[in-house]
Amino acid sequence: MEDIILEGEIQGRLSELNETDIVVGIPSYNNARTIGHVVKAVQAGLAKYFHDKKAVLVNSDGGSTDETMEVVNNSTIEDFQSILISHRKDSLFKITTPYHGIPGKGSAFRTIFQIAHTLNAKACAVVDSDLRSITPEWIELLLSPVIKGGFDYVAPYYLRHKYDGTITNSIVYPFTRALYGKRIRQPIGGDFGFSGNLASFYLTKDVWDTDVARYGIDIWMTTTAIANNFNVCQSFLGAKIHDPKEPSADLSTMLHQVVGPLFELMETYHDVWKDVNGSTTVPIFGFQYVVGLEPVQVNLDAMIEKFRLSIKELSQIWKLFLSDEVVNFLDNAKYFSKDNFFIPDEIWVRIIYDFSIATHLKTLHKEHVLKSLTPLYLGKIASFIIETWDSDATEVEKMIERLCISYEALKPYLIERWK
């Protein structure tokens, strides 16, 4: 395992440290405005819950120009008594370093994994740098299942508004669950805990010149942990509130960045998922409670209009890889009124499975296939919004569970066509 991704100065500091119990990593890029709060929350969490452990905070930065790294170095809790922490920990040891390699969150994580491996860390966590809702308890909930429970991977379990996280709810969660048989509710949550052993295992994988290094790290970490039989669990973190997405990050780009790695992992782990039937629950730690959520505004008319237009523009492309049943449904769907607009779960699952098969068989260029998914996704989300307009969170979760069951029930359809 090479250490070339770490600069000589950093390697020297690691040699002085020799080893540690805990590494908490924060990837960043121009987050000077928000990262100070995250650093203080991490410091408070370590002081409150792990005061007897040696810990290192690692800021792996992508070349910020707004003094992000300076904010990390200067942020500290001066008055522990004011937050009722009696076990004051000595000043938190921090490492701030630019990462090397392809620009992206995955390369930032690789540096954190490398430092954890070098220091022989027992437990690690990574948290986003733009979090506004992180509390010291997040650190306990992400690390304790590893340190006290013997788990290797801790996925976050958030509460989200019913129209937030729709890519996760309609594709990533149910599809990952059907493929690998584990009910991890937020597979791409962004904040994770993991063992030092798993960090070292991640480093052995030859993915650091691929899209994993750019944007696919979250689903890659979750899938790699499950597919290689690491012991996985979840921790309830409450609501996740962070900075809005970049305005330039359009929906097609987001779908490509999320669904593309999901499909690529199907190639890597075909021998694993082809034999999985059904799914099992994954332990959830933490006291669960109801919390107020920021509403998400939606433009239902625009979604439906884009869906209808796409049927005229893209139907000839879709006929190359969608099943006759789905094509016939879409031909009729363009005449649906807003009041009657509805895409059944079974049709949606067949669409996703057909798209995954099209990328596997290289029916068209992968980018073209994934871009043509966008209007169909908008149609499914519009249908979901209409169906759940008056539903509370419990009712919405039941509908998502119903979708998950459809993914699992139709998995033989996917296996049969995967050649």
What is this structure, in a nutshell?
This protein is an alpha/beta fold. It has helices spanning 8-17, 35-49, 68-74, 105-118, 136-147, 166-180, 196-203, 211-214, 217-227, 251-268, 270-273, 300-318, 324-333, 345-361, 366-371, 374-388, 393-409, 411-417; strands spanning 22-28, 55-61, 93-98, 123-126, 153-159, 182-183, 192-195, 232-239, 280-281, 284-285.
Fold and architecture overview:
The chain is an alpha/beta fold and 419 residues long. 50% of the residues lie in helices and 12% in strands. It contains 18 helices and ten strands. It has helices at 8-17, 35-49, 68-74, 105-118, 136-147, 166-180, 196-203, 211-214, 217-227, 251-268, 270-273, 300-318, 324-333, 345-361, 366-371, 374-388, 393-409, 411-417; strands at residues 22-28, 55-61, 93-98, 123-126, 153-159, 182-183, 192-195, 232-239, 280-281, 284-285. An eight-stranded mixed sheet has the order 3-2-1-4-7-5-8-10. Helix 3 links the parallel strand 2 and strand 3 (93-98). The mean pLDDT is 93.
